[in-house]
Each structure stands twice: as structure tokens, then as C-alpha cells.
């Protein structure tokens, strides 16, 4: 079954992406997923201030350019993994190198 590992990071974590030690943790994790043969996709995302939000307002749309409204956590990226069950997905999620201020949501992929 496929699961998304949805990674939320603290605003200061986006600045740490230029730190080789921080980046190395993510590279090692991505390699581990690839070597296990379970990674089917994913991507890191740029900092929230580079985003644009579109909200429907009846028949119209409201466009809000960055910075995205600040919160304690922002969407930093995701991995798609194909594993036998939720327990295996959760085990891999515990290995994501997030900071103490980040989180990982594990969600099954919608099968259509």
C-alpha cells in the first residue's frame, strides 16, 4: 500500500537547509528509502514565502502571493512510499530527520 509521509517544518528549519549537516540527514534518509526499494516519489518544497494561495470566492478567486501566513509548522515536503502496512509506514516516519519543532503525518494514498 502507498503512503504519503507529509513533512511539516518550523520556519527556522527552512533556513537550515543550507547547513551541510542538516542537509546530509535528509540525503541519508532519502538514500535509505531508495535502497529499501520503497520510495515511489516525493519532493522537498521551497520556503513558504515563495508560495501563492488561491481561494475560491463564489465564482471568483482570491490570489494571495507569499509570504504564506505564518504558523508553527509549514509544509516542507513529502515522500511517497510503498510498504506492506501502516505499521511499516509509521516505522519509516519515525526515522525522518525533522527537528524537534517539526512533524510527519502519515496518510494512505487514495486508490482510484
Provide the number of structural domains.
Answer: 1
* Category by helix and strand content: alpha+beta
Radius of gyration using CA atoms only? 16 Å
Kindly state the percentage of residues in helix. Answer: 25-40%
Protein name: YciI family protein
Family: Belongs to the YciI family.
Organism: Rhizobium hidalgonense
InterPro entries: Dimeric_a/b-barrel (IPR011008), YCII (IPR005545)
Describe, in short, the structure shown:
With 112 residues, the chain is of the alpha+beta class. Helix content is 27%, strand content 37%.
Structural features, described:
This protein has helices at residues 11-15, 20-36, 86-93, and strands spanning 2-9, 39-44, 52-57, 60-65, 74-82, 103-108. By secondary structure, it is α+β, with helices and mostly antiparallel strands. The mean pLDDT is 92. The chain is globular, with a radius of gyration of 16 Å. The strands form 2 sheets. A 4-stranded antiparallel beta sheet has the order 2-5-1-6. It has a single domain (2-108), classed as Alpha-Beta Plaits (2-Layer Sandwich).
Keyword list:
two-stranded antiparallel sheet; 112 residues; 4-stranded antiparallel beta sheet; Dimeric_a/b-barrel; YCII; YciI family protein; Alpha-Beta Plaits
